[in-house]
Amino acid sequence: MQIYDVIIIGGGPAGLAAGLYAGRARMKTLLIEKDKDGGQIVITSEVENYPGCMEEESGVSLVARMTHQTEKFGVERAQDAITAVDFSGDVKVLKGKKGEYHARSVIIATGAFPRPIGCEGEKELIGKGVSYCATCDGNFFEDMDIYVVGGGDTAVEEAMYLTKFGRKVTIVHRRDQLRAAKSIQEKALKNPKINFLWDTVITKLKGDGLLESMVIKNLKTGEETEIHAPEEDGTFGVFGFIGFLPQSSIFEGVINLEDGYIPTNERMETNIPGVFAAGDIRVKDIRQVVTAAADGAIAAMMAEKYLEH
Ligand code: NAP
């Protein structure tokens, strides 16, 4: 039976950075990714906020360079979806659709994905008008119209942040009251660049290449309206902030979770010795590529220390 020093679950920036550090530390490392590497960042058409990224770097190209760098240090790869884990022994067992894997330590870097708005045309227009990250994509909508979906703290705070870029920012909320904290609401209600579309959902996003129009529906009256991009802009932005879906269902009942996220200390240790978590799956405030990569590096170095002892 092959026993790895460390198995990393997830091939996004956190997992790839963990792989890089584990590989360089000469740990026998396996990185398991169920799909393609990259996680959420591959839906970003241009990354400008990762230190050292190239000009006009896409998420796909940044991840390809991260993958190359990680594999250079001898990290083994498996493409498999882990469906169950047993962390009770010194050797941790991971069961996948294709096989079973064993390791003395595990780094969980499975990520969290934004909940989709759930309307027609959304998937096709991600990165072409539709986004889930104001920090990543806000500046692509300089002096354009921006719509923000959601009524929680994130939606309202991000809407305020997006007023730095957009000509006007409209919050589209399915009810007639915000869920966001009163203090956050007050600031937004006072902001002259913020407008509201209450009791409203987006039912369709349309565009050939770029987002050009959308159909919205008033849930109280049933009335549908199509909103077109101003002719001079050709497009507009739609940002979805209706919660995140942490990829942690396989760890339920195995490891401590808080609302689906994994709490860790600064050393990325979970409540189970030898099991670490890194990146967006952790309980944390800031979910960015740079913070995910930092988590991955810390987790791998701490896994090395754990194995030494
Ligand atoms: P959230 O509080 O769960 O709010 C999600 C929002 O999206 C709600 O307004 C909800 O509408 C709406 N929504 C959910 N599903 C939808 C759907 N399918 N279609 C349309 N709208 C939908 O999520 P969050 O704003 O991301 O915040 C997550 C947690 O982080 C919260 O505990 C929040 O307090 C915290 N947070 C705190 C701060 C801060 O303190 N500064 C900042 C950001 C986040 P309904 O209201 O109708 O349910």
Describe this structure in words.
The protein has 6 helices and 17 strands. The longest helix has 20 residues, at 289-308. It is elongated and about 60 Å long. The mean pLDDT is 95. It is an alpha/beta fold and 309 residues long. Strands 1, 2, 3, 4, 5, 6 and 17 form a 7-stranded mixed sheet that branches. It has 2 domains: 3-114 and 244-308, FAD/NAD(P)-binding domain; 123-240, 3-Layer(bba) Sandwich (FAD/NAD(P)-binding domain). The structure holds NADP nicotinamide-adenine-dinucleotide phosphate (NAP). NADP nicotinamide-adenine-dinucleotide phosphate is lined by residues 118, 149-155, 157, 174-175, 179, 201, 241-243.
Query: Can you tell me the CATH architecture of the largest domain?
Result: 3-Layer(bba) Sandwich
Strand content: 25-35%
pLDDT < 50 runs, ≥5 residues = none
Which molecules are bound besides the chains?
NADP nicotinamide-adenine-dinucleotide phosphate
Per CATH, the class of the largest domain reads Alpha Beta
Secondary structure: helix percent: 10-25%
The major beta sheet can be summarized as: 7 strands, mixed
CATH fold type of the largest domain:
FAD/NAD(P)-binding domain
Number of domains: 2
Alpha-beta classification: alpha/beta
What do we call the CATH homologous superfamily of the largest domain? FAD/NAD(P)-binding domain
Anisotropy-based shape: elongated
How many whole angstroms does the radius of gyration measure?
A: 21 Å
End-to-end distance, in Å?
23 Å
Helices and strands, in order, run as EHEHEEEEEEHEHEHEEEEEEEH
How many β-strand runs? 17
Provide a count of the helices. 6
